[in-house]
């Protein structure tokens, strides 16, 4: 058990942005929201899955929509209360703890705000171990746990309840709701048992994010230390030559093109993203694909750069790390592999492409 304070939010924002693979919402906005809630309500208790009571139930809360919209449309605390109350109303009257559904700048922070406001613990886990762009893309759905009744709320006091036939339908309808409700809204989608978390969650995501943040804030050789901490690898060093992005159907989609530096000076790298980085190609050859993690880091500081922060001329490192083994199943690859996003090549684990 640990209590999270405002200083932990600085570290968590950085680490979650790295694990968020470019998506999950702006880490600075998420950090400010979480720090404000801790200022008002006090530190948040963080517990492991093993510290939950055997009959505990855990709710997941997040934001859904285009990350670029969140920067201009920040939710107020009243909307958190409204969503929580609606979620309890439709899912039962017992929430013992809350948890992130994904690791990402703002979406690692949203449950902390709920935990502070409602005085419940935060569980050190999530449902992705990274961020993904669609709502059905979590390890609970992959293992047959349905994500409705799902509850949504905007900053104007509007709410919506979804009951769907499967997770993909939740995503499709929620995406339409998001567009109508302003492009970025709060949501609650699961009420999970301790056993379900034990079996299907990605454990220790929050504490790992904090460790990443601390490393980047204190290390004199941050990228090298990240490789040790996360078992990651450098795919490319380069300078951003072009970024083409657009908001389409509630997503920020696009391509970043990098020209090489140092040992990569004669090569070109392309990163395809849909809110999150999905594919890294070097000289048109896939070097890493979803579900493995692709993160763009500042060449000097090692700080993660989100997809909305990619800018012409930035000198970067493309950093990759293996996904959790829970994704490396047939159902996992079918749900979040490159084929789902329309790419015509198979998923090859990062460990094999690096050796190759």
From TrEMBL:
Residues 7-163 form the S-Me-THD N-terminal domain. It comes from the Bacteria. Residues 167-350 form the S-Me-THD-like C-terminal domain. This is DUF917 domain-containing protein. It comes from Salinicoccus cyprini.
């Amino acid at each position: 058990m640990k209590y999270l304070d405002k200083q932990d939010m600085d570290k968590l924002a950085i680490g979650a942005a790295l694990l968020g693979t470019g998506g999950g919402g702006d880490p600075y906005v998420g950090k400010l929201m979480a720090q404000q809630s801790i200022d008002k309500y006090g530190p948040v208790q963080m517990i492991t899955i093993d510290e939950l009571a055997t009959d505990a139930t855990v709710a997941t809360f997040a934001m859904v929509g285009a990350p670029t919209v969140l920067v201009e449309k920040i939710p107020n605390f009243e909307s958190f209360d409204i969503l929580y109350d609606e979620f309890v109303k439709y899912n039962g009257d017992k929430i013992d703890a809350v948890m992130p559904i994904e690791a990402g700048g703002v979406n690692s922070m949203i449950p902390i705000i709920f935990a502070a406001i409602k005085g419940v613990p935060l569980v050190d886990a999530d449902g992705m171990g990274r961020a993904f762009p669609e709502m059905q893309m979590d390890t609970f759905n992959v293992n047959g746990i349905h994500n409705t009744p799902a509850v949504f709320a905007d900053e104007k006091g509007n709410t919506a309840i979804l009951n769907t036939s499967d997770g993909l339908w939740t995503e499709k309808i929620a995406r339409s709701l998001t567009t109508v409700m302003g492009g970025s809204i709060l949501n609650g989608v699961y009420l999970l048992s301790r056993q379900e978390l034990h079996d299907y969650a990605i454990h220790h995501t929050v504490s790992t994010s904090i460790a990443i943040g601390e490393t980047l804030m204190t290390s004199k050789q941050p990228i090298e230390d990240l490789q040790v901490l996360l078992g990651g690898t450098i795919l490319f060093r380069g300078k951003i030559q072009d970024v083409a992005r657009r908001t389409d159907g509630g997503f920020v989609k696009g391509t970043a093109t990098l020209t090489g530096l140092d040992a990569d000076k004669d090569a070109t790298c392309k990163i395809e993203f849909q809110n999150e980085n999905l594919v890294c190609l070097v000289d048109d050859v896939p070097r890493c694909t979803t579900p493995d993690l692709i993160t763009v880091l500042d060449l000097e500081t090692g700080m993660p750069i989100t997809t909305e922060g990619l800018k012409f001329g930035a000198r970067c490192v493309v950093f990759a790390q293996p996904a959790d083994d829970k994704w490396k199943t047939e159902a996992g690859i079918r749900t979040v592999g490159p084929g789902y996003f329309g790419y015509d090549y198979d998923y090859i684990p990062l460990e094999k492409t690096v050796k190759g």
